[in-house]
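Re: [ENG-882] Designed sequences occasionally contain unexpected residues at chain ends

Forwarding the minimal case from QA. Structure tokens:
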């Protein structure tokens, strides 16, 4: 009985592998990765959500690009001081949100943004504008940290894994030293000394200390790839070490790098939030999502929207980036079985049966 069950499971797995191989037959590696990623529903939904959020955030307010000025579609700026609203606010609070999502036929006031959809702060500033500006700064920190840490981690990991020996020993001991210092302590020291220089400098300095995990992953990948046949063939052909690293090994390790950088960016926005909440990140008059939460944490019981909307944006951004990273990991990992829909599975199985009959 057990033998029959094992044979059936092996046969089923073989059929699924045959269907998956048939589905990717004749496709390049890039096309296979793209197809796997597109079929990852959570990753695609998160990617669309993240792109939509980025477009909304960076087009809402006025942006200065050199001599050019883009006037955003939102009517208020972060420095405007409109009249503070008291009308229709619960429990005698002030500056309540005018956003309504409940239709009239369900007993609500209808779907509308109103004058201040996210409410107003203590002095009357439009909170939607403040959240948009804070999201801009937090996203900028996330991308800069991802770029800086990605470059440093890739370079150190690649050199360490390729050359090995004393080079590997020195670089990895330096990496271990950085790892032993908690990131929140490093970030607090950096934020305390350089937070007043602006969000760009803060992100650059933080990126100098958040590359350690990526460097270890890249090192392990290079240690494995440098022993492959195509590297030996390149050496026999007279290729120099630099060419072998950048033209032969690095393209084969790009999947690990992309996935790791994506997940690193998700951690970066949470790090910035934590530092700003503790008072060591972005400082006033600049704005970030973490700083908004820190400034209005005492208003959580009386005016929860001042705490809720920045927190909601942080959660959406972090989850979206994490899900995109999961989709990229599944797409680049050759051990992951392709996610075939029912129609694709039936179509491919019919083609396999047709080939079998013709033989």
């Amino acid at each position: 009985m057990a033998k029959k069950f094992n044979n059936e499971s092996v046969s089923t797995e073989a059929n699924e592998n045959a269907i998956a191989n048939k589905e990717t037959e004749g496709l390049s590696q890039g096309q296979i990765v793209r197809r796997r990623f597109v079929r990852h529903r959570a990753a695609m939904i998160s990617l669309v959500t993240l792109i939509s959020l980025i477009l909304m955030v960076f087009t809402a307010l006025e942006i200065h690009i050199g001599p050019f000025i883009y006037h955003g579609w939102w009517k208020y700026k972060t420095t405007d001081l409109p009249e503070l609203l008291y009308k229709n606010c619960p429990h005698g609070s002030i500056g309540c949100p005018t956003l309504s999502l409940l239709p009239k036929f369900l007993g609500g006031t209808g779907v509308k943004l109103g004058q201040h959809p996210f409410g107003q702060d203590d002095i009357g500033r439009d909170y939607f504008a403040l959240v948009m500006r804070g999201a801009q700064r937090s996203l900028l920190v996330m991308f800069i940290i991802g770029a800086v840490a990605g470059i440093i981690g890739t370079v150190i990991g690649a050199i360490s894994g390729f050359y090995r020996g004393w080079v590997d020993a020195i670089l990895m001991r330096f990496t271990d030293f950085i790892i032993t210092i908690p990131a929140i302590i490093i970030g607090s020291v950096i934020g305390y000394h350089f937070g007043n220089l602006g969000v760009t400098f803060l992100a650059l300095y933080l990126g100098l200390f958040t590359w350690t995990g990526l460097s270890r992953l890249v090192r392990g990948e290079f240690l494995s790839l440098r022993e492959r046949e195509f590297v030996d063939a390149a050496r026999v052909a007279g290729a120099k070490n630099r060419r072998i690293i950048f033209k032969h090994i690095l393209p084969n390790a790009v999947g690990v790098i992309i996935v790791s950088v994506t997940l690193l960016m998700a951690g970066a926005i949470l790090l910035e939030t934590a530092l700003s909440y503790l008072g060591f990140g972005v400082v006033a008059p600049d704005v970030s999502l973490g700083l908004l939460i820190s400034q209005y944490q005492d208003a959580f019981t009386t005016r929860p929207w001042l705490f809720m909307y920045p927190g909601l944006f942080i959660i959406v951004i972090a989850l979206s980036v994490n899900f995109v990273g999961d989709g990229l990991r599944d797409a680049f990992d050759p051990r992951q079985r392709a996610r075939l829909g029912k129609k694709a599975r039936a179509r491919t199985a019919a083609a396999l049966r047709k080939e079998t009959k013709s033989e």
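QA comment: On inspection the terminal residues look reasonable. The longest strand covers residues 63-65. Proposing we downgrade this to a documentation issue.
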